[in-house]
Amino acid sequence: MIKPTPNPPIRLFTVADGISTEDLLVNLSETLASANALSCDLAFDLEGAKREELLGVAQLIELAQLLADRVHDGVGHTTAAA
């Protein structure tokens, strides 16, 4: 019998319980910064449509970075107010 859907992939990485929201956001920001640097470096080695596509990915990463920074700033204000 053939299954209608495949098994979900096995997770290789997990996030440990008990890590503060601020620490998670800092790690998220560092990961996004690394992804942005990698995509920009690679994009500048390409030409034409592929370069434009990868620069689009870099822009999406940058937007995610701005959102993460805004959330991180909000966490700092909430913690200070409490």
UniProtKB/TrEMBL annotation:
UniProt xrefs under Pfam families: DUF6124
Source domain of life: Bacteria
Protein name as it appears in the record: DUF3077 domain-containing protein
